[in-house]
Amino acid sequence: MGIIDEFKEFAVKGNAVDLAVGIILGGAFSTIVKSLVNDVIMPPIGYIAGGIDFADLYWNPLGERYESLEAAREAGAPVIAYGLFINNVISFLIVAWAVFLLVKGMNSLQRKAEEEPEATPAEPPKEIQLLTEIRDALKSQSN
């Protein structure tokens, strides 16, 4: 088998397609979480903390103050943007919690599927019954 054939086999297998779908959905989910953190969660926290915008919190080791983090970066100041770090930690915790709940749900469904006994039919299908009758009739004729 040539390398091209091996690649074709790999590329069309379900696992590769599932991985691609997971990556695409992960990117979309990341956008949603980023919006959730920046547009829904952080504004009330900033309001409670006295109108602070966490995304604009930074520390300049040189002691110079600027209007915003963007202005400090444009000026080339060596800033530590700890507010963005706080936002990213909150984003991570939300994603981790969502993935935990997803995996927990999948594990629960898998356990239920494993616990359910396979349904055994009370009697075989009609085709099997008919074939059995034919076999028995042929056996009785040959005796």
TrEMBL record:
Entry's transmembrane regions: 16-33, 40-59, 79-103
Major site of localization recorded for this protein: membrane
Transferase keyword on record: no
Keyword Membrane among UniProt keywords: yes
Domain of life: Bacteria
InterPro entries from the UniProt entry: MS_channel, MSC/AndL, MscL_channel
Classification via SUPFAM superfamilies: Gated mechanosensitive channel
Keywords, comma-separated and alphabetical: Cell inner membrane, Cell membrane, Ion channel, Ion transport, Membrane, Transmembrane, Transmembrane helix, Transport
Bilayer disposition of the protein: Multi-pass membrane protein
Compartments (UniProt record): Cell inner membrane; Membrane
Similarity annotation: Belongs to the MscL family.
Functional note: Channel that opens in response to stretch forces in the membrane lipid bilayer. May participate in the regulation of osmotic pressure changes within the cell.
Oligomer status and interactors: Homopentamer.
Protein name (Swiss-Prot/TrEMBL): Large-conductance mechanosensitive channel
